[in-house]
Amino acid sequence: MSFKEAVQNPYSPWMDDAAPETDVVISSRARLARSLADFPFPHHLSPDKAERVIQRVALAVRETEFSARFGDTEMVRLAELTPVERGMLVEKHLISPDFVMRNHASYQYKGLALTADERLSIMVNEEDHLRIQCLYPGLQVTAAARDADEADTLLEETLDFAFSDRIGYLTACPTNVGTGLRASVMLHLPALVLLGRVKDILTAASRLGLTVRGLFGEGTESVGHLFQMSNQVTLGMSENDIAKNLDSITRQIIEQERAAREQLREQMPVVLRDRVSRAFGILRHAYVLSTDEAMRLLSDVRLGVGMGLIKGVAPRLLSELMVKTRSTYLAKMSGRQLSPPERGELRARVVRQALGNISADDGE
Amino acid sequence: MICERCKQQPASVHYTEIINNQKRQMHLCEACAKEAQKAFEAGPTLNLKHFLAGLMGPAIAQETPTDARPFRCESCGLTEEMFGKYGLLGCGECYRNYERLAPLLRRIHGSTRHTGKVPQRSRKKYRWVQEVERLRAELQEAVEKEKFERAAELRDEIRALESRLT
Ligand SMILES: [Zn+2]
Ligand SMILES: [Zn+2]
């Protein structure tokens, strides 16, 4: 039931607007890497052992205590999904792109356990046996880390995780060893980009032990002004300190972005208003849109909505459109792979239908 | 060929980078290569090529025991060469080559000691590890203050505890 829903519906609860600081932070994630003791890591795993790993995790999530806390959790093998359905899970950030691209184990031996509310997902036989992930809307890093920790504790009742007294949880890649925790936030920083300040801020963040990368595209030239920021270090810091460090640096960046937005409003009100209203107009009326153009314009509209320059548009609609404008969703919608021109046309239609009927005003 | 970073100077430095298992050729000019190197030294930016070079190269020879044989996991058969190729270890037992991995971990994380969550079943052993570290500090102090009798006691205690650890 929930899987059918998850691969059909472009909306996911991490897009919810009713969460802290959603004007700048779109979502927060905590991901724990765990290995089963007595099994080689996934890329070294024979098919029958990979099968046993999947079955053990499937049993563990069916334990009463686990489902009492997280609800019914379904386990599906990637082999049971179509390529488009797998793509949908990637676009909704419920699984990693690597999970569907790498060939360490065939799709038959890659599993995904997903709760009905899509807030908790467990990838089985990704780079590690388990990748336990909590994904929440807005700035909720500590809540996500706490819930991932709870899931881990409940799983530990039935699963024997590889752990060293010196270096903590053992993972396939030495970059994840220790806590196995990768906490991250997705940031929307259009004003800092427009004012040319984003590079300095991101450099500063990297000196404070965080990694920042553009969500789409390379480095600071991220299409759609979206950035993913996460902890670099997993060993020698407690889970709590990792989450708190990310949370507090994120709060500083939020302040910087908000100040930059106010500076834009004061110093170039017409340029700003023209930019966001023009973007809104194009999205509402275009008959052809490329992915990049759609991402850029959606970013401008999000800025306008966040600053009260465009009213009547829910930010969650824009997050949903980030999924809906991807080729994967368009292919799912039409039931076949489309040629680039067909895609551009359908993309524009999807956006028109989502935004065209909104009785929005430009705040004048 | 033009430098792929600044897209202005001719590229004169070529090297292969391995990120997330993807091999990638980099072509940079002198200046950008230097900057890239600086960026690497300044922070623990993930660059597996450098980490692996650090793990296996002569630069860390003094950090590793002199009788160190090539890295090979008894349990899963992973060799240093395979690790260098994919940047992934083969199993939890690979980490028993702790002495060889410690410099790598220090370069990635700036630390070689886990201070976070401990699974329920490991809690007791974990406390021993902490106790060993405490005793070591005490030992150091005893030696510095030339309390040799106390130091010998501490040494025995540490040895006894360590024999129970893996
Ligand atoms: Zn250059
Ligand atoms: Zn091994």
Task: Tell me what you see in this structure.
The complex is a heterodimer of chains A (364) and B (166). By secondary structure, chain A is an alpha+beta fold. Helix content of chain A is 47%, strand content 15%. Chain A is built from 14 helices and ten strands. In chain A, helix 6 runs antiparallel to helix 9. Chain B contains six helices and two strands, in the order ββαααααα. Classes of the chains: A alpha+beta (364), B mainly alpha (166). The A-B interface holds A 35, 37, 39-41, 43-44, 98, 102, 127, 149, 152-153, 156, 160-170, 172-175, 177-179, 181, 206-207, 209, 211, 232-239 and B 20-21, 42-46, 51, 75-76, 78, 86-92, 95, 98, 101, 104-105, 108-122, 125-126, 128-129, 165-166. One zinc ion is lined by residues 73, 75-76, 78, 90-91, 93-94 of chain B. The site of one zinc ion (ZN) has 8 residues of chain B, from loops.
Distinctive features:
heterodimer, A: 364 residues, alpha+beta, Creatine Kinase, Chain A, domain 2, eight-stranded antiparallel beta sheet, 14 helices, 15% strand, B: mainly alpha, Wheat Germ Agglutinin (Isolectin 2), domain 1, two-stranded antiparallel ribbon, 6 helices, 2 strands, 8% strand, binds zinc ion
SSE blueprint:
The complex is a heterodimer of chains A (364) and B (166).
Chain A: H1 2-8, E1 25-34, H2 47-62, H3 64-70, E2 73-77, H4 83-91, H5 97-101, E3 111-115, E4 120-124, E5 130-137, H6 141-156, E6 163-164, E7 168-169, E8 181-188, H7 190-194, H8 198-207, E9 210-214, E10 226-231, H9 239-267, H10 269-285, H11 291-306, H12 315-324, H13 327-334, H14 340-355
Antiparallel strand pairs in A: 1-5, 1-8, 2-3, 3-4, 4-5, 6-7, 8-10, 9-10
Helix pairs in contact in A: 4-13, 6-9, 9-10, 10-11, 10-14, 11-12
Chain B: E1 13-19, E2 22-28, H1 30-42, H2 48-56, H3 80-86, H4 98-109, H5 123-144, H6 148-163
Antiparallel strand pairs in B: 1-2
The complex binds zinc ion (ZN) (2 copies).
